[in-house]
Amino acid sequence: MRKPIKAVLVGAAATALLAPGSINAFAHEDHGRGHQDQRATTLGALGKRAGVRIGTAVDMAALADDPPYRAKAATEFSSVTAENVMKWEVVEPSRGKYDWKAADELVDFARANGQLVRGHTLLWHNQLPAWLTSGDFTPGELRDILRKHITDEARHFKGRIWQWDVVNEAFNEDGTLRDSIWLRALGPGYIADAFRWAHKADPKAKLYINDYNIEGVNAKSTALYDLVADLREQGVPVHGVGIQGHLSVQYNAPHDIAENMKRFDDLGLETAITEADVRIPMPSDSTKQEAQAEGYDVLLRGCLLTPRCTDFTVWGFTDKYSWVPDTFEGEGAANIFDEEYRAKPAYSALREDLMLAAGVKGRR
Ligand code: 9MR
Q1: Nearest to residue 275, comparing CAs of 238, 243, 308?
Q2: Would residue 141 show up in a list of annotated catalytic residues for this protein?
Q3: 246: domain range?
Q4: What is the per-residue pLDDT for 21?
């Protein structure tokens, strides 16, 4: 169970901040405060004081059709990630014909709200267009197709993307490289090539390798560590490691996350928690929600304890829209707000961590 980190706060500031109900009052509603005032207590605003961006993945259909969703996405977070609309099948549904509409809309939304954008993702084994997966391409052709795709997409968004997930989910759980159309055709060198092409197309973007089940020290995170250490030594432009953070209350939270992240930090790499959510076997109840809060708390603390950890992104913020029930039968409620946009204990846990971190390392 999460321990009362409140105890660490001392003095009048703590009394004011932690007056009974005050956190929940901030969390749930405006209570007549002005927009600015309300915004100053959001995760994004607290994160800025703590030196980290707090982001969310954005579902573009919800953003268009659901005003409360749009309002929260605009005010609660200081960065956004495209949940789906920058993926290959969406941006290049037929060969050489790009459709940037939805992705451009997200970038414009972010700019209008003073948010940075994480680009997701240039190279993955999933959500590839049919023309690519069912085309009978030679390795040489596939290499040209991949180079062109990465170059065109990174160039289209040049100057507008803060961090790119250049390579997504390249590893198996045992630390070997995943069998994908890229590995099969191009061999392991495809990873270095992808970073070089992306860097050439957008030299200022921070380039990340991103994966799941790499929160703690294990075979997969160690293989990824060895790879990025090797890439750095070769001068390949890889700047950061994205730790997705898809957890379940059924498994232990990764309590060695800070130790794991430190290894990457020591290499001079940035880190980020890029897709945090903590799923619950349904039905949800308050005990499970407390366990969920602990999962979020462990992930955020990992980031806050790591000097070069730049951001913490949740993979959606409301249980109303989530990939989890479609993927894990009988599980859901993985987000920090419920389906009616009411804050859950996880939300309060994140706020408390950020308040503490802002006090310790922020510029008040
Ligand atoms: O949340 C995304 C969901 O809407 C898509 O259907 C799914 C397709 O695989 O991808 C989800 O996002 C994934 C992300 O791009 C990479 N890491 C795992 C995420 C959850 O599956």
Answers
A1: 243
A2: no
A3: 5-361
A4: 32
Q: pLDDT, tens digit, for every residue of 141-174?
A: 999 999 999 999 999 999 999 999 999 999 999 9
**Stated pTM of the model:** 0.89
Q: Answer whether 215's CB lies under 8 Å from 261's CB.
A: no
Closest residue (by CA) to atom 13 of ligand 1? 83
Can you tell me the distance from the alpha carbon of 71 to that of 331, in angstroms, rounded to the nearest whole number? 27
Query: Quick one: what percent of the chain has pLDDT higher than 90?
Result: 87
d(CA 33, CA 275): 31
> Which ranges in 51-87 belong to alpha helices (H)?
60-65, 67-75
Q: Over the stretch 59-84, which tens digit does the pLDDT of each residue have?
A: 999 999 999 999 999 999 999 999 99
pLDDT band at 13 (very low <50, low <70, confident <90, very high): very low
Distance 322 CA to ligand 1 centre (A): 9
Give the number of domains in the chain.
Answer: 1
Q: How far is CA 128 from CA 93, 105, 119, 267, in A?
A: 9, 21, 16, 32
Q: Which helix (H) or strand (E) holds 56?
A: strand 53-58
Q: Residue 82: which H helix or E strand, with range?
A: strand 79-82
Catalytic residue at 83? no
For position 35, which CATH number holds?
Answer: 3.20.20.80
